Amino acid sequence: PNDNTFVTTSLASVTKQPVLDFSTAQQNLTLNFSEVGDLKNNGFIVLEIQGEGQFNDAEIRQWLSNRFWREPFTALLVSPNDHGNGVNSGEVADVRQFFKIISDGTQQTIDHTIDNNGKRLRLALASDVETTASRAGAKVELKLNLANQAFKLTSGSQGTVALTAGALWNASYTADPVATKPLFKLGKLFQLSLTNAGKATALVSEGFLKLDIGDADISATDFAITNVTTNQTIQRDKVNLTLTGDVSAFKKDANGNLVNKAGVSIGWKAAADGQSATAVLGAGKMAGGVQDALAAFGTLYVAADNTVPVPVVNFNVKAEIQGNSQATYNYFKDELADLFILTRDGMKFDTITTGTTSANLIHIRDVSNILPTEGGKIFVTITEYADHAANGRGEGTVLVTRKALSVTLPSGGAVTLKPADVAADVGASITAGRQARFLFEVETNQGEVAVKKSNA
Question: Which uninterrupted H or E stretch holds 178?
Fold first, then answer.
């Protein structure tokens, strides 16, 4: 196969060892011996595992055997001795031209040995292979997809497993080993994905009880989970989902199940403290390579008669499977940030400080008189600028991004701030004498700001 058609079997590295002991590759291989003399009488074709894996003796023996007496081999084929005009053959007479064959009286098996701690498989070449098959263009086709459960891989390992194939005789390679592309890749079990987060803004004019999208569902786009293995199965009812964030403002039924605008349960059940929600992925089995759309889980709804202020929050989601809940996998999780992003509207303003002007006073007043009891949050983003002279330039460095202050703006009230105290409140250290920009975002849609300059 070429690079575009080679199939690497993806398996979950968290697969439990007793299960991963019996793995099957999907990619078949054809060994091309292009030179006369590549294959020597009583030599070997050598296959060696590169990476963390071994051959399983019983399964390899079964793979290298025919079904009954004179029936053809199906898992290993050879080019017949007809000058390359025929298709590869598993007929016993053709295979015998390449390999030594042994029999137990019922089946015939290609003579082979597994050594080097299970990593090397040697196929014994016939005693007259130089006469019968050692010609330019001789081929051996290995149908690895029929080598059922013939590979023992290592649980917990990351990376790939490949093979090298060559021909060996009398302490030297007559055909140097050639490496395959990876037959196996061990990595994730499943993966969460998303195109666009569900976004909405709580309106200060409504006391943050309603959203800018009106009476509608908040919907994420293309929220999905994918089984990223090639052929491993996941039991959906063993995969648990957790939505982290304050869900107290979203509509629920009497049992605490979150519902959409139509009143239909979306699958999430709110925790008792309202700070998260949980769900089970679903029922049935998800095959390797399958993607499940999670449109319902990507939905939230704030009812028209909501009485709980909608918070500023970014919802993260986690999918996990517990090792003690099923027999195939150890614990695994995947996480996705920002499934939903909820903000509050308000006003923005900024002020520049330099050196001693960090003693300026910033007065913020709310004149809407509609803020909730806890007041309107005040967020700040601080950017410090490198030292520079007049007509010069200085690069800006963001010290903090949209961090909430410990003080809030009371409804109809006022807050007085000092830049130096603001920086300390959010853990920003500003270099003395440097310019710094404070960008404030205040949760009020009707406010006033005054900055009193100070040279103290």
Answer: strand 172-179
User: What pairs with residue 383 in β-bridges?
Assistant: 398, 437
Task: Give the residue among 25, 22, 31 at the shortest CA–CA distance from 58.
Answer: 22
Instruction: Give the pLDDT of residue 3.
Output: 54
Q: Is 230 left (phi over 0), alpha (psi -120 to 50) or beta?
A: alpha
Q: Which residues pair with 260 in a beta bridge?
A: none
Torsion of CA 327, 330, 331, 337, to 10 degrees: -110
The alpha carbon of 85 is separated from its chain's Cα centroid by a whole number of angstroms, namely 47
Check whether 58 has a pLDDT greater than 90: yes
d(CA 295, CA 73): 49
Residue-level pLDDT at 355 = 56
What are the strands of the beta sheet with 447-452, ordered from one edge? Answer: 414-417, 361-366, 447-452
* Locus of tokens 């003579």: 111
CB 251 within 8 A of CB 305: no
More confident residue, 97 or 357: 97
| Dihedral sign computed on CA atoms, order 116, 117, 119, 120 | positive
pLDDT higher than 50, residue 1: no
Distance CA 215, CA 198 (A): 15
Mean pLDDT of 314-340: 98
Q: β-strands 265-270, 257-259: how paired? A: antiparallel
Segments of 228-312 assigned E as strands = 234-235, 239-244, 257-259, 265-270, 276-280, 285-286, 291-293, 299-301
Give the integer Cα–Cα distance in Å for 390 and 423: 26
Cα 343 to its chain centre, rounded Å, is 28
The reported pLDDT for the residue numbered 372 is 84
- CB-based burial, 404-420: b 16+ in 10 Å, e otherwise: ebebbbebeeebebbbe
Cβ(33)–Cβ(139) below 8 Å: yes
Query: Roughly how many angstroms between the first and final C-alpha of the chain, as a whole number?
Result: 77
**Pairwise pLDDT comparison (81 vs 12), residue with the higher score:** 12
- DSSP code for 418: -
